[in-house]
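## tool: complex_structure
## caller: assistant
## args:
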Amino acid sequence: DVKVTQSSRYLVKRTGEKVFLECVQDMDHENMFWYRQDPGLGLRLIYFSYDVKMKEKGDIPEGYSVSREKKERFSLILESASTNQTSMYLCASSEGMAGVTFGPGTRLTVT
Amino acid sequence: GESVGLHLPTLSVQEGDNSIINCAYSNSASDYFIWYKQESGKGPQFIIDIRSNMDKRQGQRVTVLLNKTVKHLSLQIAATQPGDSAVYFCAENNNFNKFYFGSGTKLNVKP
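## result:
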């Protein structure tokens, strides 16, 4: 019953590295999202995409970029990882006004 | 503003008791609300939703109440079980495709 998958559950990277987080959904959803989740801050929207090759900035896009070349895949890119990007990253997808379906998350540690 | 490292509010209940988790939302224009459950190490899972034209909606052992006058949402869990231990948070939608999430409440069920 696979719906939203993320390429890694745990990831450790060094400061300055380029990091790719991959997300795939099999529900043919139009909308895809990347959130980060930090203690006490809840989920904060980084970027979202409502169509292939379309993207919009969320609330905290600085230091991130995204790519959506195919409908089912939405990638989050950290061009030069920094320690303040250590976090849990959650990918999600949705269709219209229906609720978002989340992936299992990627816990990224930047040392 | 919020502080990094702020602890989540915690609700401790005895197994078998009813739980009530509350959420205040910010935008009076929000017209769709969802409750999510997030277990440790996992992505959030949809529990129940409600649209703004309703005051109450019931699911299996869960009930969501919406008070638009005071912008308040609550989740009631009947006969709470150990498997209900998790972080619960609400989400509001006031813009097509975008959801805004609360920071969550940790439910601790004591056996």
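## assistant note: The longest strand of chain B covers residues 86-95. Chain B touches chain A through 29 residues (CB under 8 Å). Handing back to user.
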